[in-house]
Amino acid sequence: MQNIENLIFDLGGVILTLDMPRAEQHFTALGVKDYNTLFRSGNVSSFFKDYEVGGISDAEFLEALRNLAALPLTDEELVAAWNAMLGHFPEERIALLSKLKNKYRSFLFSNTNALHLITFRKMYTDAFNGNVFDDHFEKAYYSHLLRMRKPDKESYEHIIRENNLDPSKTVFIDDSILNIEGAEAAGLKGIHIKPGTSILDIDL
Fold it and tell me: Does 101 share its domain with 189?
């Protein structure tokens, strides 16, 4: 890719696979009814976003999740169901990240949360001989630690400013068109990973 010096990757759906049906199965098995209405509608409870920007604690999130499910579920049951959406790290995607790091300044920007971060970091370490996932990047940005989330323009501008990036020479890669539009509003070049494709299909 010509005149590109920097890459910013999304995580879920781009590097890490997601398994939303498995999450639904876990919650349904616990007795949750109307999973799609509660968890996947456009009107999903605001506490999900609050958790993504570090606005509430793990305990507060789990209590809100328990209230949403309207069931006397234990923290352990809720955490297991919540983490069920996390798939795996395909080896060929990880190999590509290692290759691209030698060619570009590479960063990560993920809308995530504390419980997921602990889990997918451990998943990666277990799957890749004790290695550390974040080592693939010059810096990894996680929304709950950054206290900003995509697609807010300010979140991209913070990363650009902190790393002295030239937006016109920086590509942001995400599977959400809304996040791509937010990145482009901040001057970044966007690549949308559409369903049925992956980062292996990008000419980088």
Answer: yes
